[in-house]
Amino acid sequence: MRVSYSWLKELLPDLDATAGAVAARLTSLGLAVDGVIAFGASEDVVLVTVCKIEPHPSRDKLRLVTVDVGQGREERIVCGAPNVPAPGGMVVLAPLGTHLPVIGLTIEARPIGGVPSAGMLCSEQELGLSESADGIVVFAPGSAAPGTRLVDFVPVARDTVFDLAITPNRPDALGHLGVARDLAASFGIPFAPPMALEPQRTTALALNKLVTVEVVDLERCPIYAAAVVDDVTIGPSPDWLRYRLQALGIRSISNVVDITNLLLLEFGQPMHAFDQELVRGGRIVVRRAKAGEPFTTIDGVERKLDPDDLVIADAEGPTALAGVMGGIASEIRSTTKRVLLECAYFTPRGVRRTSRRHGLSTEASYRYERGVDHGAIPAVLDRAKALLAELAGGAIVPGSIVVQGPPIPAPAVRLRSSRLDALLGTPVPFDEASGVLVRLGFAVTPAEAGVLDAVVPSWRPDVSREVDLIEEVARVRGLDQIPTVLPATKPEEPRPALRLERNLAREAVSLGLSEAITYSFVSEKDLALVHAEPAFVALRNPQTEDRQVMRTSLLPGLFDSLRRARRRGEQAVQLFSIGARFLAPELEFSEHALALSKGDEDRGVLPEERPSFAAVLAGPRAGYLEPPKDVDVWDAKGLAVELVERLTGRTPEVTLCSPPERPLHLHPRGAAVITLGPIRLGSLGPLHPDVADALDLGGPAVVVELDLVALARLGHPTTVFRPIPRLPAVTRDVALIVPESVLAGDVEREIRKAAGELCESVELFDVFTGGAVGEGRRSLAYRVVYRDPKATTDPDGARTLTDDEVERQHERVRQAALHLGELRS
What we know:
Layout: E1 2-4, H1 5-11, H2 19-28, E2 32-38, E3 46-55, E4 63-70, E5 73-79, E6 90-95, E7 99-100, E8 105-106, E9 111-112, E10 115-116, E11 119-121, H3 124-127, E12 138-139, H4 150-153, E13 160-165, H5 176-187, H6 207-210, E14 212-215, E15 223-230, H7 239-247, H8 255-267, E16 272-275, E17 283-288, E18 294-296, E19 302-304, E20 310-313, E21 318-321, E22 325-326, E23 339-345, H9 348-358, H10 363-368, H11 377-391, E24 395-396, E25 401-404, E26 412-416, H12 417-424, H13 430-439, E27 443-448, E28 451-455, H14 466-477, H15 496-510, E29 514-515, E30 521-522, H16 524-529, E31 537-538, E32 549-550, H17 555-567, E33 573-583, E34 594-595, E35 608-618, H18 633-648, E36 653-656, E37 672-676, E38 679-686, H19 689-694, E39 702-707, H20 708-712, E40 730-739, H21 744-755, E41 759-769, E42 777-786, H22 803-818, E43 822-823
Parallel strand pairs: 14-17, 29-33, 31-34
Antiparallel strand pairs: 1-13, 2-13, 3-4, 3-6, 4-5, 6-11, 6-12, 7-8, 9-10, 15-23, 15-24, 15-25, 16-23, 17-20, 18-19, 20-21, 21-22, 26-28, 27-28, 30-32, 33-35, 35-39, 36-37, 37-38, 38-39, 40-42, 40-43, 41-42
Helix pairs in contact: 8-11, 13-14, 15-18, 21-22
């Protein structure tokens, strides 16, 4: 937003600070100055009256203009502008010796076409008033006495304009009054809003005979006020208003429209002016639009409205899109004689939705979306009527129409001196803090010693908590008043959950995976494709159509990363992600989605944020002695087992899923569950081909999912150091033929159980199918290592095993194997 230094000086007569000092103070107040525009018209430039115009003796395109420069003196100027006014008109003269900083020119005495010129008649561009260079500046006859300095007649000619970056929480600073209030509080000078203008010409017309107002939707429009000014004359605005708006980035249109824009920049309150005679039926109805209802905005575009749109309608249809843009049917025209003024408060949420839906962002919607000062509506409307009477010659129709729903409460916030000092880290005199709040417009009442209650003014919708009051005190006193000290804290150990996540990420990277940071927001369609939890949390204001709900699975984000990698030519992809899954609370829903949109009352039903791990492997694995082959379920199993072992020191079991518990996004052949005792840690398996095709992954993939809550229950591994065995081990092999349905892990567990305490390890070293083994069967060969268990715990008490005792133990292994299959010789 652009703010005029000269306008701030008008609002704050006691402000004795340079433009540079004001810019620095604004930034310290949180109203950051992004840029400064200095209008550099020279103080030597004056207004003069045209006395006579003569042709140039030798140049057809030049003329000799004699002007009255004041005090009975006349000068002759050589001018080639096409718009030199007739005698009596006023123009702007840069006399000899004048420096025009905008164009870097000093006016010197030199003949033009053989005729000397006593100066130069200037354009707006040469004076730094605008970019217009179409002709010289022309004022109405008698606008000022000849010789009047331009900077005295048009203050903006030597103004400084600040380009402020206003944060969304400060809608009050979107008007000069709000900025002036902050400056007054900071500099400790008086501030008072501008007084109402003196009563102007009125008319005997009755307001209720001209217009009636009905507000159907008081929730979206809690306050609607209207007034009428009759017998206006539409024309150009006076020069001071035209140039003020121009300096602040708003194009001058007409006196009526310019007045509404002036009040927008002064109060931060948007207004709309209708041609009252074009308001059909003399009725104003604030209502929701009908589905598909047509409406043409003032930009000439016909739009189809949505039932969520709030409109200002007359007896026949919409005349304005509430808080966004007016309609072409009732806009101010050159023939307008009676103006209907609208000044209202529309709730920010509704305006924001309408603005986005129709792709319309206006000065009005920008302010309504952040929240305007509903308490200023009567003052703004009265000032608008008075300005219309003064600048458009209108006659005020007495009274105003105000339709209002339940009063908007003014919140009261308590401030404690102890909390103020603790949060700022330095003692702050409580009387000083109270004075800051009073200067900012808060109604302050002492509650008890060191405690006060502050009633929040209507222009500060951003203040609702004690910390907000503390922030106000800090920024007005100056953040430089807070000393720089080191906090008296000591580093704490990270919480166990965070430590687990860090360790898991480190181990996954060490195993060759790359971490993918994905969005917590996904589309409902993607969750359905991976058969994720159906009860999800819907976002109230989604960023895009693809980010509408909170994820209940990490897989959609990983699959999106895999898809992007494949499209860029990367075939071998091994990614993992660690983050929260957002699981909706166990409530009774009328629908699957739970939209958390009511603020504090929803805090009891917030979703569970369950930390999880997911990995996706796709493409060929590295091959050294054989051609590369695509990763398969065994790679997923190896990854899952290795991660759990490294994190817990315990080896999990990976078993095939039975149909009821199989994740639907996994292929029935290969889907497995990861468990450790009674605790289910997660699942793994190849992605179902239908899911891979629907997600356009460009090929098969395997996935691993781990629940970090369950993983944390297993605790951390304890490192135990043992001596290297000094006694030799005894190895025996056992091979058996089993049906293909028998799992190698089940055979290994039976062998280990039968081998007893002398068994140090069991390893599958050969798998053979075909040949003499026969169809539907396979040969599994295991190597069993026997050693005295004391060899690594009590080396001095250990002994070497004899062949006899090893053979007896291994016979038990062979007998146990016979229950599973047929022994091979």
